[in-house]
Amino acid sequence: MLRSRDWVLALPVTDDGRLVMVRQYRFGTRDLSTEAPGGIMEAGEDPRVTAARETEEETGFAGGRARVLGTCAPNPAIQSNRCHFVLLEGVRPTGRREPDEHEEIQVLALSPKAALAEALANPAQHSLALLALYRLRDERPDLFS
Known about the structure:
Helices cover 25% and strands 34% of the residues. By secondary structure, it is of the alpha+beta class. Helix 2 (112-121) packs antiparallel against helix 3. The chain is globular.
């Protein structure tokens, strides 16, 4: 069994309805993946705090109202952790990015509909990032029209 702390995927939405995403190379699939920003929670940390921190570190966007949309078990057959999906509404660019040493991230601001279409077209798409988009669509269908 693989043990890890819980993860968070953030769904940062700007005031004009754009979804802030990251595109990065994933070594497992040897391909680019467009995903929600996210990362591993610190021990005892609230998922909303992790989502805000990871979003600003990876994208340079911050602020807004945070709420948890749901939680899943990434792979309960071999992993003990959970992944939390957090909606951040009303984020704005701060210009303060602090990606990890080996992270090469392209920041995108897409319509949620375009982000979902891109995810569905990519056979190497990160499955949890796709699930996060579906959670967003269920919670805020107005963003996808």
